[in-house]
Write a structure and sequence with these properties.
Chains A, B: InterPro entries: Anoctamin, Anoctamin_TM. The structure is a homodimer of 657-residue chains. The first copy, chain A, is α+β, with helices and mostly antiparallel strands. Chain A contains 20 helices and 10 strands. In chain A, strand 4 and strand 5 form a beta hairpin. Chain A is globular, with a radius of gyration of 29 Å.
């Protein structure tokens, strides 16, 4: 009762609420009062009545209120008891007294490590926000047929209210708030120190959740894994620059390297996920995505009413429209590549016939044009892929993401590597290959970091300054405390972080350059290592300063990207074997017969592929000690169950007799 | 109490016990009385006191008792309540009222389909026997340091008594009893009907358990899958016998066929396993195998005392002894093969130089010698493999089995196919390949069925007749009822069924002949279909008449064999592509360049392999409707848990306020 009252209390002057605000709901500024009242009462209602039992308050006007400010911003928080029961609902894993990870239960709370009294520092802010988001997402319509006051926003029993409001544009955004102090500490540990150090993965996980922490963990792992490669590459560069023959050894090293690092990453990733309690956490049943539409029916699993869309229809869309479209795009990309090579050949011939300054410039034009066209194609394709995947109408966000990743991945792979493959295997021109590789690596590196972090930062900074100047004239952003209302509005205006997709894609392409062709250009690994180091800083910077705080995502692994990297490493085996087979050094062993050479190359390649699969099979994905821990937990829970069984059987036997 | 008494009651004359006997324990005839008394009392003791609460009685002497008869045979049974609580312990899945499969619980028993009153026909005899075996296996030593009366049989707290007695040879065997009536019904449905029909899988599962039923299911599936292949093969045989060119189409068909049938089998197998309730049943924690030895320590998972053996030591044995040994054997096998080809070449040259009757016979000698040597090598290798795997000292039976299967599989594959590969790719002699294939298929088929079913049957029949003659002179085995004691002793003398290993191995090799080379000899599929049909009958016959009834094995799939068949289908892609590349028809397309031909072949092969993996990935292993059922069950159990959580949270909140 006390809590109910405090939730309903008016906020104490200057927009400061009576609880710790965690999440912000921004409703459209023209939303009817009736709808808002209904929504707030539903959020505040007890769980027994189908509410979420969360605390929610309207955000007061900023220090320098303007006409155009949206008044419909709401702060959401929760009591400690509510958060703990939410953690139990979600099945969050926390460290137990004995050091193992167990699903948190309220009944057992005192046996968890770090649980002192009622909470502080037990749940991280990211976890609190994730719990609140989950509770908001599972706020379901009861018998309302539409949102009161908004007859166009239809509801049916069991429909998630927040998702419907989002898909209808009533709810503009839901985002978690930054925590100024924590952020300052994190950013200091992360990118403000000058000396190189390990990533503060625990802090990142604490502040941004497991998904982000795994990305930075992978980035760090990948960089360290590249170091031996880079170290071997440097002497190659310094001493044997023109001696292509030597790359046989380098290519062989490459083969082993890319298999082993991916296998070890799996183990590494599962260690991290175990430590963070996401390894054995069962995923909650996914709700349909907000954009999913279909005929209302009953979900065969949950029995709840929800839109259904026939799977066959989706499959038809995927295989009859999306697949041909992707293939067409690949063909187009190939076509553009051929035009580029024709143009380049023509420009070279013009230059050779009559070498002047202008023909020298002409030689560069095809490359520049090609680079520009590729970027444009990537951009257009990305929009098309998003449109198509949306149109395929996937029920789950995860399936939507997988289909999108696959589409974008294949096209980007093709666009980036098709010309290199053409140069390597059709033109067989290793000098040109080396040049193209170097150009691609260096330009993409510079462009990426500029586009990704510094441009958005600069834009954001301009916006911030404008706002700060309005409030406190003359002071800088760093050394002052903005009132909460202004801080919230500032964050609401920041760009939304769209997930780790683009970051992983970039790593994937870099991994491709190194694993496929670095034997031709041994400096590639060095460049990628340098790139990764700056990437860490720019990514950390953009997470802390440019984007809204994202909701944490309790990932147990890097998901579909593990598969993508493994596919790339299989392609790397084939490519490296072919490069070895084509090297003059190897050719010298088979002076009289090309056929013998090819047969041997193919045989060795098959052997290596088989070896790779056996290796994947032999190296366990989860380290032994974690496996033991997991089975112990399972064993204990089963023994407990069995004891319960035996005692209940005894009771029933006694009753029967 | 009543049950306790009935368990202790003396058996009512002529060895007929007062309960349904299910399992027989045979102890060594010289076992001390003290040990027997102790064992029986431990078995009869209540679960609360660490016993098994099973019923056990000594088997009386046979109708025609002899001196040399072993008196120490014990019949084990259980009351219905005990069996039901055992089924709950084991987590057996049974059909629920709503048609779904759920883990059986005593509390909920009336909601299960087919549960009438207290049991009859609810648990199959195979299930009852499996439950009793499980309970016997988990009878653990308390604080005994050795078996009373047998100081050499050491015990420690938590050690499985039955396993220790087995490994010390005190317990000679534990086997389940046949059920005469049921067996008669089953064998009629299975192999006594003349008309062809589907396998009575449900009945097989009911009588022999899921492992056997899955084997027969797979055998049937494989036979049906071969029918299209056989139908296509016949016209090839009739019309285009000498036209090797045509086999391109056949090989392409082969490629698609072997990928698709294996994928579909996975779905089929999971449907069966779902229907039988083994798909989602969690395996119990495996006990160490009886032969496992090591230094006594504490199991990190269960915390129980048990022998421990360092994994590193085992790995060393596997990689430093077993692996080199297997490679050596493969080399030896290759060496023998080369000698065979040399001898054959020599014999042919002798025959060509001076063709007489004796040189004609000489031509056959190498083949016969080779076949004999191969059989001997297989036999010796099998013993060596068993010895080595035993010596590797695997803790779990499953890991022992996997290592043994792998060893035997690789060697058998090599022995059977090396000569065919040599003929196909080194000698490139398609006529010889066809001949060898036909010879191998037909001889192995005839030999197998003779050795596998009819020879043991004949031996068994002789033994039975001797015994029957002693009791009822003149009557035949079929039309009379043996007294229980004699029946039990008869069964105890039957050979022990050693599991489905050899049956699967045979199918694996047949699958190899068809998928690798049937394009060269299209009749192979027809022969294999015929073989499979007789195989069904001979296997059914040997299960019903030759062997002791085996304990059922609640398998959810065909285990490591699925992997083996898939590996074979990958090899089949490579082989078929090479055969296509070598065909004169394809060679005609590349008249001027062998290199072009090889490159194209390799490219297409890689494409096909990629396609195969994508296909494996795209076809879900579990059919949609079963996935839905499984997720529904999980959803329900989670919702139930959540409700419990919310109510307990409510209670704790109320208490706190």
């Amino acid at each position: 009762l006390q809590r109910q009252l405090s939730g309903m209390m008016l906020s104490a002057g200057n927009g400061v609420p009576s609880f710790t605000p965690r999440v912000v709901l921004e409703l459209a500024s023209d939303t009817k009062e009736e709808a808002i009242t209904w929504l707030l009462s539903r959020i505040r209602d007890t769980q027994y009545n189908g509410g979420t039992e969360l605390l929610v308050e309207q955000l007061g006007p900023g220090a320098d209120a303007q006409e155009k400010e949206n008044p419909n911003m709401f702060l959401v928080g929760a009591t400690w008891q509510r958060l703990l029961s939410g953690a139990e609902d979600l099945g969050l894993f926390k460290e137990f007294n004995d050091g193992s990870m167990r699903a948190f239960t309220c009944a057992n709370k005192y046996n968890f490590k770090d649980f002192k009294g009622d909470g502080d520092s037990f749940l991280s802010t990211a976890e609190c926000q994730y719990i609140i988001k989950h509770e908001l997402d599972t706020l379901r319509a009861k018998d309302e047929t539409h949102v009161p006051g908004l007859s166009r926003v239809k509801l049916y029993p069991g429909k998630s209210v927040i998702r419907r409001l989002l898909s209808k544009g009533i709810l503009i955004q839901v985002f978690p708030l930054h925590e100024k102090e924590e952020l300052k500490r994190l950013s200091f540990a992360w990118y403000k120190k000058v000396k190189l150090s390990f990533q503060p993965l625990e802090d990142i996980r604490h502040y941004y959740g497991e998904g982000q922490a795994l990305y930075f963990g992978f980035l760090e792992y990948f960089t360290f894994a590249l170091v031996p490669m880079a170290l071997i590459g440097v002497p190659y560069y310094l001493f044997d620059w023109e001696d292509y023959d030597k790359y046989v050894i380098f290519a062989s090293f490459n083969l082993v390297w890319c298999t082993v690092i991916l296998e070890l990453w799996k183990r590494c990733s599962s260690s991290l996920a175990y430590r963070w309690g996401t390894l054995s956490r069962k995923k909650a049943f996914e709700e349909p995505r907000p954009g999913f539409h279909g005929v209302l029916g009953f979900n065969p699993v949950t029995g709840r009413q929800e839109p259904l869309y026939p799977n066959a229809k989706r499959q038809l869309r995927v295989y009859l429209v999306s697949l041909p479209f992707v293939l067409l795009c690949l063909y187009l990309s190939l076509y553009v590549m051929m035009i580029y090579f024709l143009m380049e050949g023509w420009a070279l011939s013009v230059h050779d016939a009559e070498p002047t300054f202008w023909t020298g410039i002409l030689c560069f034009i095809p490359s520049v044009l090609y680079a520009v066209v590729i970027e444009i194609m990537n951009l257009i394709y990305r929009y098309a892929a998003e449109f198509l995947t949306e149109w395929e109408n996937h029920r789950l966000e995860s399936s939507y993401q997988n289909h999108l990743v696959l589409k974008v991945l294949v096209f980007n792979f093709f666009n980036c590597f098709a010309s290199l493959f053409y140069i390597a295997f059709v033109m067989q021109d290793m000098v040109l290959l080396r040049q193209s590789l170097a150009t691609l690596l260096i330009t993409s590196q510079i462009l990426n970091q500029l586009m990704e972090a510094f441009l958005p930062y600069w834009l954001q900074r301009r916006r911030n300054k404008k706002m700060v100047r309005k409030i406190h004239k003359g002071k800088t952003l760093e050394d002052q405390e903005l009132p909460l209302a202004n801080q919230v509005r500032l964050e609401a205006d920041m760009s939304t972080y769209l997930g780790t997709f683009d970051d992983y894609l970039e790593l994937f392409l870099l991994f491709g350059y190194v694993s496929l062709f670095s034997c031709v250009y041994p400096l590639a690994a060095v460049l990628v290592v340098l790139n990764n180091i700056t990437e860490v800083y720019s990514d950390a910077f953009k997470m802390c300063r440019v984007f809204k705080r994202p909701f944490s995502d309790p990932a147990a692994n890097i998901g579909v990207w593990q598969l993508a990297f493994e596919a790339m490493s299989v392609i790397a085996v084939v490519t490296n074997c072919s490069l070895i087979g084509m090297s003059p050094q190897v050719k010298a062993y088979f002076p009289d017969s090309d056929m013998q050479l090819i047969l041997w190359t193919v045989a060795i390649e098959h052997g290596l592929l088989a070896f790779k699969f056996i290796l994947t099979f032999l190296i366990p994905d989860v380290p032994k000690h974690i496996q033991i821990n997991l089975s112990r937990l399972e064993f204990e829970s089963r023994e407990a169950l069995k004891k319960k069984c035996v005692s209940s059987a005894l009771v029933s036997t006694l009753n029967a007799e």
